[in-house]
Fold this protein.
Amino acid sequence: MSEARLDFSQKLVLVTGGSSGIGLATARAFLGAGARVVILARDRERLEATRKQMLFALPEAQERVFCLSADVSRYPDIFEHLEAMQSIHGTPDILVNSAGVAHPGYVQHLDVEIFHQMMEVNYFGTIHTTQALLPGMITRGSGHIVNLSSLVGVMNIFGYTAYGASKYAIRGYSEALRQEMKPYGIHVSVVYPPDVQTPQLAYENQFKPPETRAISGRGQVLTPESVAQAILRGIRRKKFTILPGFDSQMYYFLVRLFGPVLYPILDYMVAHSTNQESK
């Protein structure tokens, strides 16, 4: 199906992390395209406030946006809530796994609990929602699952040992999932955004070591809306790899072409930053 012919009108879309950042922008984009949208996040009050904001911009969408308060890191909780949602609305046509957290820092200073948190929210949060919805998608014979990784899920950088590992895990899961779901008519996409101007980025910036800033600060910072539009375009084109922005595309293909050859460049940037800090 061509991009021009794929219509999101009345499609049911579930977006995790839908109350802020990329998740919110993606939910708004789908709503504007005529879809029925379920935004999922932990904070019920924030979800309701987000729904009101969305309806302020699109008051005619009153019957097309719904809230679901649940914690993606807790499987019994997410399974129960998604079972109830499916009994009312049916199985989503599109699942966007956008819920995520990041906490950079020197590896020797990161508490082990931070490593667990990154995996529990970013990786297992993606697993939990997907596994809960797969039976319905398989029975129906259609669906599209979009998993948010990151550019550090392509090649990790200094300061992101915990976060980057969880995003690599999403990539590995998605590569196998794509192969297994293809016979059932279910498509899978992975998104590799660079830094995006979100509350999450503001949080990360408090903890980034200077070496991390030296590397990540050279790239462009996208808006959540531009990432959301890239996601919708990728779904329309049934693309497995979605690369928002020129920097993402360039970095991805450099890594694919040269791989470990880039290590000395990253090492130089880290060493240069360290020298600058010591002056």
Summary: The longest helix spans residues 112-140. The chain has a mean pLDDT of 93.
